[in-house]
User: Which sequence fits this backbone?
């Protein structure tokens, strides 16, 4: 469906530029909205690792905030 296609697009974007943190964030948000929590956690934690590596405290805070709302 459309969600799976959107996830594939985010995956392609991340493959081309793993440091594009917004793609990790948006993918995680999309998956959370569809109650696909395990996949959302994986996407958000991957983004958090990149944000830590890049010393991007703002994006790291955003990603961790979403992670904290996962069941």
Assistant:
């Amino acid at each position: 469906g459309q969600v799976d296609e959107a996830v594939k697009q985010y995956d392609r974007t991340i493959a081309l530029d793993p440091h594009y943190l917004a793609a990790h964030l948006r993918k995680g948000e999309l998956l959370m909205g569809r109650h696909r929590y395990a996949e959302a956690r994986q996407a958000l934690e991957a983004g958090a690792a990149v944000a830590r590596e890049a010393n991007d405290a703002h994006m790291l805070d955003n990603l961790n905030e979403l992670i904290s709302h996962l069941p």
Remarks:
- The helical segments are 2-16, 21-33, 37-53, 57-68.
- The mean pLDDT is 97.
- The longest helix spans residues 37-53.
